[in-house]
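Researcher: Quick one. two chains, 731 residues in total.
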Amino acid sequence: MQFDIKKITNSKGFSAFTSAFLAIILGLIFGFIVMLFASPADSLPGFQTLLFGGLSRLGDVIYYATPILMTGLAVGFAFKMGLFNIGASGQYTMGMFFALYVGFMWKLPSSIHWIACILAGLLGGMIWGFIPGFFKALFNVNEVITSIMFNYIGMYLVDMLISNNAKMYISTMARTAYLPQSVQIPSLGIRNSSANISFIFAILIAILLYTILQKTTFGYELKATGYNKDAALYAGMNSKRNIILTMIIGGGLAGLGGAFYILAPSTITGSSMTYEPINVIAAAGFTGIAVALLGNSNPIGIIFSALFISYIQRGGTLTSLHGYKPEIIDVVIAVIIYFSAFAIIMNTAFVRLLKRRKEKKNADSTDEEDNVDESRLIKDQALDREQTEEQPPDDVLTVDSTSENIKEEA
Amino acid sequence: METLYYLIQNTLPVAVPLLLVALGGMFSERSGVINIALEGIMLFGAYFGCLFVYFVQGTHMNAQLILILAMLVSAVTGLIYSLLLSFAAINMKADQTIAGTALNMLIPAGVLLFSKMFFNSDGVTTNVPFYLRKVGRLSEIPILGKLFFQNTYITVYIGLILYIIATIFLYKTKFGLRLRACGEHPHAADSVGINVYKMRYLGVSISGILGGIGGFFYAVGVMDGNTNGHTGVAGFGFLAIAVMIFGQWQPFKIMLAALLFAFLRTLAYSVPLIPFISQLNINQTFYKMLPYIVTMIVLAFTSKHSRAPKAAGVPYDKSQR
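Model:
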């Protein structure tokens, strides 16, 4: 029994899960404190709504999970290579624009028109992902700065292009016109929600990415570069090409997210999703960072973390019933990211604590009949010795698990 | 000539927040911690500075005195907020970029949440006249008076003073030398008895102070004393990081870079006022993109031979070799 628990607690997946779980718990606690501070009387029912409100809107949970699942993949995929794709917002906005453009300006048969729009979104995101990758590979410009700059450039560019296009933009409403029915992605048929089949596409894409990462040479090179850039270069992997390729794929994923969002069918017939050029950077890209971190950059993990974030966002929107504002959920998400940045360290501390408590218990049960004072003394000494001795074995364990990873990949 | 005066007068209040925040980033990186949270620190400082102004604006206090007190408030709040980054990056050895991103995301959401709940708006609006039409006798000096002492804010002079202090601190004091050592080779610094953790806390805290002040100066000099959670500080924290890289982590070059970026931005926003450029008839949004595009081009040319502090972004681990 004891052996089993050790095996589970030391496995990589378990550690990723518990660290995500810890980060979520801490984020929620912080959210509750903020709510308590903002309006003490409403905090309990408000927090309850935040936690369980999503249950009444499952269709919406799926609909809103789709774009952040894609941006989460965009960020997570680049993470695997050690790149921080903070530019998912810009890529997302570009994907949205390309999809809108094809939707409004091209005349295509209605059966393939929506597919063409999705592909256009893919292309738009790819272009916007290519640029930071290109700058990183050729000029050694930090991709974080580049992609932030291109978030702004993309946002201003799209706002300019849309508000100057009379066919796409209704200036009196300050938003884009309604997309024709033929461009909207078929609905999943959940009543009163915009959930559509793009959610299934997103899951399939996640599985495809998982396969690429685990089974192909490209995926192997990518992860190797992420673990140790210099070693990968020494082993003859073309890091420049891989950087550009990773960013193109990441950008394409975020672009698809934008297309999936804007092409979703509306619950009101004759309307559609619209874009408002109001010079604000899309939030979906930043939520994608949270999704990727919670999912430990694993495509399968990202599916679940996207669903979770979307679920809790729905709950957060519903807290307005108790006088709170939906921004409460952005606060919670930010705190979750903050804690997940060092959750791994907390996690090892947590596991160590569990182990120690277990050992204490064992020690208690064997020493029961002894004199109390004496046994405590001995136990303390033993514990001290264990504590000092415990450090090295833990380190050995982490080394073991990394070498296991390498074996897995080989 | 009038146009040139106008451009310079408007460039300086924009350049000062960029300069201060970039200097803050420089202190942080020179001590070995990448501070991408500057955007959030700026907004946090700006928000509390403006809140202070909001609560004292009814009293008959001198406007410039209010500004200086609010600056101190924003410096303290910026410092407090930066401790979150220090804790994550130095004690918890977390990924500095991710922790910084989280701190950036927290503030706009928090500002919106509290402003909406307590003021029923997106931020704080104040109406204290910080603007200086003329600075006493100095404004009568030919040319120079018109360039630097008319239609400006007191922030410009405070910014200059802080710049001088920061330069002296970095190059001429014991702490500055130790701080730089921790960013280049922390193990060597540790071996001669310097407490690397302490120096890094110092570096990030200075960036918190300068970031908070810079944020408030942005609210004063660019936003006319207002802050809101939607536009925040419009990417100035990130631009400041670019300015810092462009300035090669050196105060003087950083100042030149900040002036260049501020000038471009001012140019972009005053296109309709300049006959020569407005005749070109280019969409104004293009000019708004210009500072970001120039940043990219400049970085492409300067990043190859980057003189970044060697240990920036690497958590210090005593037992590592």
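The CA atoms of residues 21 and 211 of chain B lie 5 Å apart.
Researcher: Thanks, that's what I needed.
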